[in-house]
Amino acid sequence: MPLNLSQPKRKNAISLTPLIDVVFILLLFFMLTSSFVPWRIVDTPLSMTPDTPKSEEEKDNIILTLKQNDAQVWVEDQAIRFADQAYFQTLIADHNEAIFIIKAEEGVTLQSLMQLADRLKLNGAKTVSIANAFAMPETK
Amino acid sequence: MKIGEKYAARAANKDDNMVPLINVVFLMLVFFMVAGQIQKADPIAVMPPYSINDTRAVTDPNVVIVVGSDDSDSLYVDDERFVLDEIQAYLEQQFTAAENKEAFWVQIKADGAISLEKLRPVFNQVRLAGLTKVSLATQLERGEE
After folding, report:
1. Averaged pLDDT for residues B1-5
2. pTM above 0.90?
3. Which of A70, A139, A140, B103 has CA 20 to 30 A from A45's CA?
4. Can you give the residue ranges of every domain in chain B?
């Protein structure tokens, strides 16, 4: 009677430990180097001669002044809340081609400035200039 | 012998209990690879202001200026600590060395909570250096509050 000498099928298992080592290292690398902040940029073109366009500026441009971080902006000596959608819509509709220049007083944060610029853009403003908010007080 | 075989089989698969761990680790790895963006870390942690603006930078900035929060006096230009008055000279030097002067732009990264007075001198330095292309870093707002 022939002997069945074929060896029983053995699962040739590969050790998982080196694999886990490598995967852990990869995981650590990606965890440490990944950034989830969706970075964007806002152009703030600086003019070389801030005084020259002044005569043109006064033609139809709207100057909005931020005085505090209270979600309010001053337009022609009138405090307007950022949430006042109707006012912004009328203002922008009335001055369709105007440049909306944002100025800021002391203590105003960058976030407030961005909030106002967003509000203007959301309501259809074509050109919003925030560069003036960064001008040194002497060059205003 | 039956008992011996059984024992041997179990011993060969001693890594079996690692499989769920590897599954989870692989999932995390895939998540970080797909969802994250690999980029150089800033010298200081900066939380840029939220904005609906969705403009992405087409090219990498030639110079990155990172402004620290109000209570700290830190100012980093291209990952090196700088004094405010030295920025102008550095920018001029970088601009002279740049190959494509038309596309030369400066990125300013600042915290959303920073007050604008802190940023004004930095912008002034850029202006004094004769550069006009400046961009502020923002982060995309995830919907209305």
Report:
1. 57
2. no
3. A70
4. 2-35, 50-140
Residues 6+ apart with CB under 8 A from B40: B79
State the pLDDT at residue A1.
63
> What is the percentage of chain B residues whose pLDDT exceeds 70?
87
User: In Å, how far is A101's CA from the nearest CA of chain B?
Assistant: 15
- Termini Cα distance of chain A: 108
Assigned CATH for B50-140: 3.30.420.270
Interface probe, candidates B105, B138, B140, chain A, greatest A C-beta count within 10 A? B138
3-state percent helix, strand, coil for chain A, nearest multiple of 5:
40, 20, 40
Q: Which CATH entry fits the domain spanning A54-139: 3.40.50.1980, 3.40.50.1370, 3.30.420.270, 3.40.50.1000? A: 3.30.420.270
ipTM: 0.74
C-alpha to C-alpha distances, B36 to A36, A60, A97, B72, nearest whole angstrom: 5, 45, 40, 29
CB contact at 8 A, B52 and B142: no
pLDDT tens sequence across A107-126 = 888 999 998 888 888 888 88
- The shortest C-alpha distance from B52 to chain A (Å) reads 6
